[in-house]
Design a protein that fits this description.
The complex is a heterodimer of chains A (585) and B (316). Chain A is an alpha/beta fold. Chain A contains 24 helices and twelve strands. In chain A, the strands form three sheets. A six-stranded mixed sheet of chain A has the order 8-9-10-5-11-12, sandwiched between helices. Chain A has a four-stranded antiparallel sheet with strand order 4-3-6-7, with helices on one face. Chain A has a two-stranded antiparallel ribbon with strand order 1-2. In chain A, β11 and β12 form a beta hairpin. Chain A starts with 7 loop residues before the first helix and ends with a helix. A two-stranded antiparallel sheet of chain B has the order 1-2. Chain B starts with a helix and ends in a 13-residue tail after the last helix. Classes of the chains: A alpha/beta (585), B mainly alpha (316). At the A-B interface, α5, α11 and α13 of A face α4, α9 and α11 of B.
């Protein structure tokens, strides 16, 4: 749990790093100093890649586009217009950031490997364009008068110092992202994008903000690269090796932590440079082989990278956290008699077709404020599809749903969430690498503008469902009952007026089901309206105030539980016509 | 420029696009077969093709009595290289790819795609730069008489179509190789097993199919097809160790266009890419040929990621 906590350890490490940098810069001779500059530049590019690829899981094969954008901004402005690289570097970062936003806005709709492949094409398409435009080799002209104004220093120690300052700045930004809302939202998107949306994260906006920062960092790295190497060619800044190095230093060092790219660049860049200096004349391409072998080894041996390998090793020596006793909740309290409230959710004649399949045909229902509505029906009745429609995951063919006066149909999942409709899933969609309370925190962001308030709300909600003892356990280690409660807490953390619960009893033992029923009744008593799907009758009769029965995508019946379970149409839908006679007696 | 000159230019470009497109189609078929059956994107496919080009070069140098016979010998060498690359593919799968695909990738967040992409990216860097160490960076090609000879077809009085012999025979060879693969997939026991594994590996496993072995076969066939394409291209196209990468995007573009999965679709996708690339020379400066391919690739990915011929996309 690092969210919001001031990390003294990080500050100490940063101070040590800074001291090391200063000593290195003061003691090294010119060639190692050049290598140090390159370490800084590639580490910055790695940090930039890590924001999208590591935190957000958006594996880009095209970070060279932003890097090259920055490099050519400096080179062209200086060479053609005499603009100082001091200004060029700033503009390079701006160009990198803008490119990343534009490319991201177009490409983020693709998922997984389609995204990676599409990103590959951007920088590679730019190489022939730049060559054709006459920028096949742009050299930074030598300035004899006032060289310092043009970033040309007689002292070989100044450029490494500048790159180190820039690197520490980027590192600081990344460490900051990790501890705030943006980082948490990116983690959530990486682990389960749909759940993140339904928890109220505006995923597209988050991704674009992340690409703006990432692109600006890559652009700055490219700009400094141009200043250090003095000659920019399309192949050297837009080439595949650039994108690969960004990815490789990050994955080698450790994915999803700011320390990863730093460690990766510190090990791999000097290794490749030294080998290239020693053997490059006889064995050209030795750099590529080093990076290639490094990344293959990482993927085969420790796909998480060095940082996590070491950390897991350390963590495995710590004692495990205690498991929560299985049943901690009292039996269900008697249902308080409530007057039915006004209508909260109206569903009017919703139809959904998938090709020729009518998943829902003209389904209508109402949910009243404060009630627990059970939506039941046999498998294939369209219950989950109905929730997916209300949630904005699936579009309707016709019909509409309204929450109070606001129209729900046609909204995106995050807009639905912002209106106060929360959702849990049939198979729990957790963010497995986040701790329980962090999972809940992601749900709390929507309702709380300040990070501190969101964190407080998350803790309150975790206590509300009785999971406080397990709050720091990663979701991947929770039991199925704890996962169900965690998902419920995540839904509650956004202060919803309505919760849509999809088969929340699936996979639970009888005792756990009783606990869950108590929990849901408690929520209803506190004023949260619940619509719950279930296909087993037993638990639902004890839980719901009212039933709506769906069968084959249509309304079949509705009413009080007692009436509905005696309804011959319902019995026939569940058990077949033969049973109607038996049940009638 | 009068009409007949225009017509001749367009016909010439169309035929060049079709002939080159058949070879692109063959490369795409290799990559598409691997993706279709294993759901693995092999980033190093282009580098394997580059290796096949050098294998072809050396094979021809060893076996050919002279330039006049070099082309037919090269076609024979292509078959031998294909067999070698089948073995190399099976070995690569056994040693590397199987560790990040199939049963071992089931537990990961994204079906192991990222791991596979990055592992094969590493492999491509090693092969590309290893090739640079072994073969040097100067471009070379399989010297043969057919590459310098063309058939002239008089279409009308004004229009004469030039068909380069090496390119034409290569296109024939490519089409034959794809045809054979389609037959293999449709008619043989191996093909049936491959199709079963492609549509549902777990069910195939329960039915007693050795899934890992089928994957190995698929990877081998995929590399063999691309190797044939490599040797054919090497008879008329100068290459160097970085050449593989030039073709990698063309392969992806074709495979994506063809719907990521079917061999026939990938072939047609490659054919289309060949046409797009050559037709773009009518309106764009020749340096921007590949930019045109990239743009088509991006447009297809963004507008119709299931490809022109594909039916379904994975949903998030």
């Amino acid at each position: 749990m690092v969210f919001l906590q001031p990390q003294l350890r990080n500050l100490v490490v940063l101070a040590v790093l800074m001291a090391t940098c200063i000593t290195a810069i003061l003691t090294l001779s010119p060639y190692p100093l050049l290598v140090l500059s390159l370490v800084g530049i590639w580490a910055m590019l790695g940090l930039s890649w890590n924001i999208l690829g590591g935190y957000g899981g958006l594996v880009s094969f095209g970070h060279a586009a932003f890097f090259g954008g920055g490099a050519f901004t400096v080179a062209i402005l200086f060479h053609d217009y005499g603009v100082s690289p001091w200004i060029g570097c700033v503009l390079g970062a701006v160009v990198g950031g803008l490119l990343a936003v534009v490319i991201g806005a177009v490409t983020f709709r693709l998922k997984g490997h389609y995204f990676s492949l599409a990103m590959l094409a951007y920088p590679l398409a730019l190489i022939p364009v730049f060559t054709w435009a006459g920028w096949s080799e742009v050299a930074l002209p030598l300035q004899r008068t006032n060289p310092i104004a043009y970033m040309q220093f007689s002292d070989a120690r100044i450029m490494p110092a500048i790159t180190m300052v820039a690197l520490l700045g980027c590192l600081f930004v990344c460490l900051f992202i990790e501890r705030t809302r943006l980082g948490m939202q990116l983690y959530a998107i990486r682990q389960n994008e749909l759940a993140a949306q339904c928890a109220g994260i505006a995923t597209m906006r988050v991704k674009l903000v992340a690409s703006l920062i990432s692109g600006a960092m890559a652009g700055l790295a490219g700009a400094l690269y141009a200043v250090v190497v003095l000659v920019v060619t399309p192949g050297s800044v837009f080439g595949m090796l650039v994108s690969s190095q960004a990815l490789i230093v990050s994955m080698f060092g450790g994915l999803g932590t700011a320390w990863g790219p730093l460690i990766g660049a510190l090990i791999l860049v000097p290794m490749a440079e030294i080998l290239n200096a020693g053997l490059g004349a006889r064995l050209p391409g030795v750099q590529g082989v080093v990076f290639g072998l490094a990344i293959m080894a990482v993927i085969l041996v420790r796909p998480q990278g060095l940082f996590w390998a070491v950390r897991d090793h350390v963590a495995s020596r710590r004692p495990a956290l205690p498991v929560m006793p299985s049943v901690a909740l009292q039996a269900a309290p008697a249902a308080p008699a409530k007057p039915p409230g006004d209508v909260l959710l109206t569903v009017e004649g919703i139809s959904v077709r998938f090709g020729g399949l009518h998943a829902l045909s003209d389904v209508s229902l109402e949910v009243r404020r404060g009630e627990i509505l059970g939506i039941i029906g046999p498998n294939g009745a369209g219950k989950t599809t109905l929730f997916n429609v209300l949630n904005g995951i699936v579009g309707t063919t016709s019909g509409a749903a309204r929450l109070g006066d606001a129209r729900l149909t046609g909204l995106s999942p995050q807009e639905v969430s912002a209106l106060g409709v929360a959702r849990t899933f049939q198979t729990v969609r957790a963010f497995p690498r986040l701790s329980l309370v962090e999972n809940v925190l992601v749900g709390a962001f929507g309702a709380h503008r300040s990070d501190r308030a969101a964190l407080e709300a998350a803790w309150v909600t975790v206590r509300r469902v009785g999971l406080q003892d397990r709050a720091l356990v990663p979701a991947s280690l929770l039991t199925s009952r704890e996962l169900r409660l965690m998902e419920l807490a995540r839904a509650l953390a956004g202060n919803p007026t309505l919760i849509l619960m999809d088969e929340s009893f699936a996979g639970l033992s009888t005792a756990d089901v009783d606990g869950m029923i108590a929990q849901i009744r408690q929520l209803a008593a506190e004023g949260v309206t619940v619509a719950i799907i279930e296909h087993t009758m037993g638990a639902m009769v004890r839980l719901a105030d009212r039933f709506v029965v769906l069968d084959g995508g249509r309304n079949l019946a509705s009413g009080l539980p007692d009436q509905v379970v005696r309804d011959p149409r319902v019995i026939s839908a569940y058990l077949g016509k033969r049973w109607v006679e038996h049940a009638g007696t | 420029m009068n009409w007949s000159e225009h017509g001749e230019q367009i016909l010439q470009v169309l035929s060049a696009g079709l002939l080159l497109g058949c070879l692109y189609g063959l490369m795409c078929a290799g990559l598409g077969l691997i993706f279709g059956i294993m759901r693995v994107i092999n980033f190093a496919q282009g580098e394997f093709m580059m290796l096949a080009m050098y294998a072809g070069l050396n094979g021809v140098a060893l076996l050919s009595p002279g330039r006049a016979w070099a082309f037919p010998v090269a076609m024979g060498v292509a078959v031998i290289v294909a067999l070698l690359f089948y073995g190399m593919g099976a070995a690569t799968h056994y040693l590397l790819i199987s560790r990040v695909s199939g049963a071992r990738a089931l537990g990961s967040l994204d079906g192991g795609h990222t791991g596979q992409l990055i592992l094969t990216l590493g492999l491509s860097l090693v092969l590309q730069n290893g090739g640079l160490m072994l073969f040097g960076s100067s471009p070379t090609s399989i010297s043969n008489a057919a590459a310098d000879t063309s058939w002239m077809l008089d279409m009308t009085d004004d229009i004469t179509l030039f068909l380069n012999q090496a390119r034409l025979w290569s296109a024939v060879m490519a089409t034959a190789a794809v045809g054979l693969t389609l037959l293999l997939m449709a008619r043989t026991g191996v093909g049936r097993r491959l199709r079963a594994v492609a549509s549902n590996p777990v069910a195939a496993l329960y039915m007693g199919v050795d899934v890992e072995r089928s994957f190995r076969t698929a990877f081998g066939i995929g590399l063999a097809l691309t190797a044939v394409a490599g040797v054919c291209v090497a008879t008329f196209y100068p290459f160097q160790p970085y050449t593989g990468f030039d073709f990698v995007i063309i392969m992806y573009a074709g495979v994506v266009l063809g719907g990521m999965g079917s061999v026939g679709g990938a072939f047609l996708g490659g054919l289309l890419i060949g046409l797009v690339q050559q037709l773009s020379t009518l309106v764009l400066p020749p340096q921007l040929q590949n930019t045109a391919v990239f743009v088509v690739f991006l447009l297809v990915l963004l507008a119709r990621p299931q490809g022109l011929l594909g039916r379904s996309v994975e949903r998030a």
